Amino acid sequence: MNRGFTLLEVMVALAIAATALVALMGRIGSSADIQHDLALHAEAISVAVNELERIKMRKSPANDTHGEVETASGTFQWKATIVRTLDDGFVRQNMLVTAPDGGTVTLFLYRDVSQ
């Protein structure tokens, strides 16, 4: 009675395992890329919120301002613009942040300027 595997069975098992490992490694690589993109997006949102709050602390909003923020991930560039609304007492403050990889985040804040 023969016990064990033939050479052909071993080769087929190794081919299946190698194919599965190649597919798994590709998924791990794309997962790391997605994680990096999400981290940059979260940091861009943080930059946008911080700059909107900084602008909000001013007595009167400036028409258009821009700047850049240096972080460990790179340089984030931001641009703030004011858009008038139908109500003269309010303006819309738009904030566009560009991440080092070229991705953008846009946030806005309605601001009372009637005071």
Based on CA atoms alone, the radius of gyration comes out at 26 Å
Q: What does the average pLDDT come to?
A: 87
**What percentage of amino acids are in beta strands?**
25-35%
Order of helices and strands: HEEEE
Seen as an oligomer or otherwise, the chain set is single chain
Tell me the CATH topology.
Pantoate--beta-alanine Ligase, Chain: A,domain 2
Taking the alpha carbons of the first and last residues, their distance comes to: 96 Å
Helix content: 40-55%
Query: What name goes with the CATH superfamily?
Result: GSPII I/J protein-like
User: How would a crystallographer describe the biggest sheet?
Assistant: 4 strands, antiparallel
Topology readout:
Layout: H1 7-56, E1 64-71, E2 74-84, E3 90-98, E4 104-112
Antiparallel strand pairs: 1-2, 2-3, 3-4
Name its key features.
single chain, 115 residues, alpha+beta, Pantoate--beta-alanine Ligase, Chain: A,domain 2, 4-stranded antiparallel beta sheet, 1 helix, 32% strand
Structure notes:
The chain has 115 residues and is an alpha+beta fold. The chain has one domain (7-112): Pantoate--beta-alanine Ligase, Chain: A,domain 2, CATH 3.30.1300.30. 43% of the residues lie in helices and 32% in strands. It is built from one helix and four strands. The protein has one helix at 7-56; strands spanning 64-71, 74-84, 90-98, 104-112. It has a four-stranded antiparallel beta sheet, with helices on one face. A hairpin with a 2-residue loop joins strand 1 (64-71) and strand 2 (74-84). It is rod-shaped and about 95 Å long. The N and C termini lie far apart (96 Å). The mean pLDDT is 87.
